[in-house]
Amino acid sequence: MPALDAFSLDGKRAIVTGGSRGIGRAIAEGFAEAGAAVAIANRSADACEQAATEIEAATDARTLAVPTDVTDEADVEHLVERVTDAFGGVDLLVNNAGIAVPSPAEEKPVEEWRETMETNLTGVFLCAKHAGRAMIEGDGGSIVNVSSITAAVADPDVPHVDYHASKGGVEAFTRQLATEWGRHGVRVNNLAPGMVETEMSASDDATDEKRRDRIPLGDLSRPSDLVGGAVFLASDAAGYVTGATLLVDGGYTAT
Ligand code: NDP
């Protein structure tokens, strides 16, 4: 097979959680450009519909909007059923939905800790569980969990213990799941962004200058910088890659 053909997602059926904006939106559009049918799954029904409609218009790919709260197992089951009905199965899942609510550990309300864990870690488990089951019953598949450099490095400037703990959990979850599902033909990997300009990171302006100085490639990334890595991990080009973490951080963690 010609080398570039292995990167094609032609005929693949994908779910991208948090696909309405930011990194998820860029990955959803990238998957559609690479040939996949793409379901967008986030809580806001309007944003979900809008993203699906715009991606379909821009790429001609099939899209589906399924408003979903990844912390709610019934919602996630419904998501996988809708995608299976509409597309005939599920081959790819990008577990991208996530939140970050900074506050000092000594003051952090336990409700905030729980919400972060529910969204960033339990949500990843629930989507993997139900989409993975569909993959196991089908022809296997590929799961890309969007973790973060915060799984590997601390940041004294942003008080985020719950966020760091959740992303560390995602990376450990990925390694374990990869070992359990390799035999089923389901690959599971992490895509670990550095600092990306999105709504989520907009609140961290005060530390941006200091952080930029630490990035060997010299600037924060944009959501589009994550697309190549996500397509690679999802595609047959990564057919022998599982349990891995692909850092896309401009070299931040190398310093
Ligand atoms: P944004 O805040 O821009 O987008 C988050 C997306 O997740 C939205 O579509 C939102 O839609 C959705 N979402 C949030 N909670 C839920 C939920 N409970 N169920 C379903 N969907 C949900 O974030 P980013 O694009 O910046 O981040 C995307 C991922 O990348 C996250 O996992 C984040 O931790 C990770 N990341 C981000 C970095 C950055 O610098 N921005 C760096 C490293 C990792 P809605 O509100 O409608 O549900």
TrEMBL record:
EC number: 1.1.1.47
Keywords associated with the record: Oxidoreductase
Region (Disordered): 199-219
First and last residue of the signal peptide: none
SUPFAM superfamilies in the record: NAD(P)-binding Rossmann-fold domains
Short name of one Pfam family: adh_short_C2
Ranges for domain Ketoreductase: 12-226
Molecular function via GO: glucose 1-dehydrogenase [NAD(P)+] activity
Record-stated family: Belongs to the short-chain dehydrogenases/reductases (SDR) family.
Protein name, entry field: Glucose 1-dehydrogenase
Lineage: Archaea, Methanobacteriati, Methanobacteriota, Stenosarchaea group, Halobacteria
